[in-house]
Amino acid sequence: MPEIRNVGVIGAGTMGNGIAQVFAASGRDVVLVDLEQSFLDRGVASMTKSVRKMAEKGGKDPAAAESELKSKIRATTDIEALSSVDLAVEAIVESRDAKLDLF
Ligand SMILES: NC(=O)c1ccc[n+]([C@@H]2O[C@H](COP(=O)([O-])OP(=O)(O)OC[C@H]3O[C@@H](n4cnc5c(N)ncnc54)[C@H](O)[C@@H]3O)[C@@H](O)[C@H]2O)c1
């Protein structure tokens, strides 16, 4: 299987921001897509809180952990940004119609 370096995550909600965070922590570059900037901001804020907390617990520098996270995440409302990813993960709202529209 080819190496996965760039990952797209669609939906920055509960699942999406957690998935994005795990991929970023594994060293992948992540494109995080949602419908509105405010949803992306909320997702990034959630990830930031989480990595800072984990760093504190592990005796690491929270600011460095936040900076590392943010260097790996590109948050955008432009779905075309997914055109160059190796893997895309769908994590949008639980709606059949919304998922079919997206695909
Ligand atoms: N939350 C859980 O515990 C959980 C567990 C298992 C599975 N899931 C599944 O994971 C998926 C996501 O759930 P969630 O809890 O993260 O939902 P959520 O409501 O927290 O987040 C969904 C996000 O998707 C975004 N979105 C909607 N349509 C979009 C589109 N066309 N393009 C881009 N972004 C779009 C919304 O703006 C929102 O930010 C659902 O299918 C859900 O059933 C959730």
List the helices and strands and how they pair.
Layout: E1 6-10, H1 14-25, E2 29-33, H2 37-57, H3 62-72, E3 73-76, E4 87-90, H4 96-102
Parallel strand pairs: 1-2, 1-4, 2-3
The structure holds nicotinamide-adenine-dinucleotide.
What is the number of domains?
A: 1
Record field, number of beta strands: 4
Largest sheet: 4 strands, parallel
What gyration radius follows from the Cα positions, in whole Å?
14 Å
Instruction: Count up the helices.
Output: 4
Can you tell me about this structure?
This protein has 103 residues and is α/β, with parallel strands linked by helices. The protein has one domain: Rossmann fold, CATH 3.40.50.720. It is 50% helix and 17% strand. The protein has a four-stranded parallel beta sheet. Strand 1, helix 1 and strand 2 form a beta-alpha-beta unit. Helix 1 packs across helix 2 and helix 2 runs antiparallel to helix 3. The model has no long low-confidence stretch (mean pLDDT 97). It binds nicotinamide-adenine-dinucleotide (NAD). The site of nicotinamide-adenine-dinucleotide (NAD) has 17 residues, from helix 1 and helix 4.
